[in-house]
Design brief:
By secondary structure, the protein is of the alpha+beta class. The protein contains 2 helices and 5 strands, in the order αβββαββ. The protein has a 5-stranded antiparallel beta sheet, with helices on one face. The N and C termini lie far apart (35 Å). Adenosine monophosphate (AMP) binds next to loops.
């Protein structure tokens, strides 16, 4: 599995950096965001280091789809599938991406304004 030793999420995935892991399998790791902005704020990330959506290839299509299926599973586990939840995938500077390793933010547990930009 390709990893980047300088990437904080690769370090979490490899167990070299502490995080509150909530899900892990051979392809995906999910953990609590260190600065949550909602009662449920989980980051879902591929174990493979891919800096952003701009770097995915056709080989990654299944993996990206799989991230969404884990989001659905965790939404059910955290009992927010009925109340609703938001998935956010920031890409690049203008979107405020601060960690260059693809991740879905799973946000829920409160009513969120429909506001972008
Ligand atoms: P983004 O701005 O989309 O790149 O989101 C990066 C997210 O990673 C932010 O919400 C941070 O709070 C979170 N984050 C950064 N470092 C850690 C860490 N060591 N453990 C958990 N979450 C982190």
């Amino acid at each position: 599995m390709s990893q980047d030793n300088n990437c904080i999420f690769c370090q979490i995935i490899a167990g070299r950096q502490a995080a509150e892991i909530v899900y892990r399998d051979g392809l995906v790791t999910a953990f609590q965001d260190i600065h949550p902005i909602a009662p449920i704020h989980i980051l879902i990330t591929p174990n493979k280091h891919i800096p952003s959506l701009n770097q995915i290839t056709t080989d990654d299509q299944q993996l990206i789809g799989y991230l969404f299926s884990i989001a659905k599973k965790l939404a059910a586990q955290y009992e927010i599938e009925q109340s609703g939840y938001r998935l956010v995938l920031n890409t690049g500077k203008d979107a405020g991406q601060s960690v260059l390793h693809i991740h879905l933010h799973l946000l829920g547990g409160k009513s969120m304004p429909v506001k972008f930009g």
